[in-house]
């Protein structure tokens, strides 16, 4: 076969959690249909969530891969690294790749993930900076951290905070600059964020919330940052961690509708025939609002990939996607924080909190007027995020168990799971 034009039954663009779960789902129903995986990455599959641990040295780069060559051989999958999707011609079921080749498919899954969102700060194109989204990014950042004395991290999401902690532990002077009024604003409330902030301050980091960078300039050591209030900062290492955005340039002219992400229905199908999308690039129905939202988290990527794979293979057991429920965990300086569900209090709902300042334990649970859990958040509290998400998705009435649940969500959640889930 001419390598320039390949034919396959299932083409999967991307190689992380959504893509791998789709392979499993396809093979459960179709053991023989040819599968081709193309990815812009140069490596075997890995999870972006492990990258902070590569930076810190806790995870060896050679041990982070989710699958090996034998997996692809056993599942009759042609795995093609360094083969980014360049253009999609959905009208003729053809994907054009950056290496100049093309793949004709019967079914296509877009699981192309997301890339760092670079803010339009004047001068950003004149300075050297780091991002953290790929293994190569992590290895480059790990090397730079070892040499850094004066580091600035732009963005106080989980990626930026992980990196800032590594920098602090490496002995650098670290300043975190965040536009929002609190750290981790997309994940935790002010009480939890203040606890996280105090841990960083105690470790020696400087925190500048409510601050906006308005100019960047190169210096002999690295970069000079000017803030909106006129304050200037010097950095020999600059990390830009201001969020991510889906890879969608290849959709231009394809007819696949997209907004913040690739729009999909409850079977993960796009507006184009024979094309599905899943993971960080997909904009699917949110559980709480019913509107289509981005929910770029690992558990959701896995669920969406499974639904897409089953739908692509024609598996009669496929079920509609139930909707996205946010779930994030975060470990910092020997402590941990977790958030599951919505932080919005429903009309007629109730918020229950408990906080033990001496132990640093904080729990916040939000219930709807019907007694059903809609969100739960904690610092140094032990509960199973997956179980909490299922309680929300299954709309479990916790009214008879509320006091016990708030006192010990880990034990009561597992009790409910063992007694009622089949």
Shape category = globular
Mean pLDDT: 95
Instruction: Give the helix/strand class.
Output: alpha/beta
Strand content: 25-35%
The N- and C-terminal alpha carbons lie at a distance of 48 Å
Largest sheet: 7 strands, mixed
Using only CA atoms, what is the Rg? 23 Å
- Number of helices, counting only DSSP H or I runs of 4 residues or more: 10
Give the fraction of residues assigned to helices: 10-25%
Which residues form runs of ≥5 with pLDDT under 50? none
Oligomeric state of the chains in view: single chain
| Count of DSSP strands | 24
Family: Belongs to the FAD-dependent oxidoreductase family.
Domain FAD/NAD(P)-binding: 9-285
Protein name: NAD(P)/FAD-dependent oxidoreductase
Pfam families: Pyr_redox_2
Describe the structure.
- This is NAD(P)/FAD-dependent oxidoreductase.
- It comes from Aromatoleum evansii.
- Residues 9-285 form the FAD/NAD(P)-binding domain.
- The longest helix has 16 residues, at 298-313.
- This protein has helices at residues 17-29, 51-56, 69-74, 135-145, 158-169, 190-202, 298-313, 385-393, 402-407, 409-420; strands at 5-13, 35-38, 77-80, 85-89, 94-97, 102-110, 114-116, 150-154, 173-178, 206-209, 213-218, 223-227, 232-235, 237-240, 244-246, 262-263, 275-277, 282-285, 292-293, 327-332, 335-341, 350-356, 361-367, 373-379.
- The chain has ten helices and 24 strands.
- Helix 1 packs parallel to helix 7.
- The mean pLDDT is 95.
- The strands form six sheets. Strands 1, 2, 3, 4, 5, 6 and 17 form a seven-stranded mixed sheet that branches. Strands 20-21-24-23-22 form a five-stranded antiparallel sheet, with helices on both faces. A four-stranded parallel sheet has the order 10-9-8-14, with helices on one face.
- The chain is globular, with a radius of gyration of 23 Å.
């Amino acid at each position: 076969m001419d390598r320039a034009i390949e034919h396959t039954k299932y083409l999967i663009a991307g190689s992380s959690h959504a893509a791998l779960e789709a392979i499993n789902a396809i093979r459960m129903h179709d053991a023989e249909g040819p599968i081709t995986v193309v990815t812009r990455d140069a490596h075997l599959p890995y999870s972006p969530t492990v990258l902070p641990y590569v930076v810190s040295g806790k995870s060896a780069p050679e041990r982070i891969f989710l699958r090996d060559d034998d997996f692809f051989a056993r599942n009759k999958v042609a795995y093609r690294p360094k083969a980014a999707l360049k253009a999609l011609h959905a009208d003729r079921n053809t994907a054009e790749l950056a290496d100049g080749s093309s793949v004709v498919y019967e079914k296509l899954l877009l699981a192309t993930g997301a890339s760092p969102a670079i803010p339009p700060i004047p001068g950003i194109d004149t300075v050297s900076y780091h991002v953290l989204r790929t293994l190569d990014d992590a290895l480059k950042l790990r090397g730079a951290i070892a040499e850094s004395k004066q580091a600035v991290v732009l963005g106080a999401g989980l990626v930026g905070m992980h990196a800032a902690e590594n920098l602090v532990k490496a002995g650098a002077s670290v300043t975190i600059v965040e536009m929002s009024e609190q750290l981790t604003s997309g994940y935790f409330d002010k009480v939890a964020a203040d606890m996280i902030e105090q841990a960083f301050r105690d470790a020696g980091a400087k925190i500048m919330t409510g601050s906006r960078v308005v100019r960047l300039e190169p210096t002999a050591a690295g970069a000079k940052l000017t803030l909106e209030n006129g304050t200037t900062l010097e950095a020999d290492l600059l990390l830009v961690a201001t969020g991510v955005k889906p890879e969608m340039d290849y959709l231009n002219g394809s007819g696949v509708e997209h907004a913040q992400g690739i729009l999909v229905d409850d079977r993960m199908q796009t507006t184009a025939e024979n094309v599905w999308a899943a993971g960080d690039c997909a904009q699917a129905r949110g559980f709480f609002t019913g509107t289509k939202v981005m929910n770029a988290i690992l558990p959701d990527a896995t669920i969406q990939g499974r639904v897409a794979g089953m739908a692509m293979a024609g598996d009669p057991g496929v079920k509609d996607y139930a909707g996205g429920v946010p779930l994030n965990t975060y470990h910092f300086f020997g402590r941990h924080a977790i958030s599951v569900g919505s932080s919005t209090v429903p009309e007629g709902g109730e918020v229950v909190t408990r906080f033990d300042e001496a132990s640093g334990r904080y729990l916040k649970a939000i219930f709807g007027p019907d007694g059903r859990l809609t969100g739960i958040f904690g610092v140094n509290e032990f509960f199973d995020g997956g179980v909490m998400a299922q309680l929300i998705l299954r709309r479990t009435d916790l009214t008879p168990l509320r006091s016990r649940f708030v006192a010990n969500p880990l034990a009561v959640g597992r009790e409910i799971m063992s007694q009622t889930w089949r």
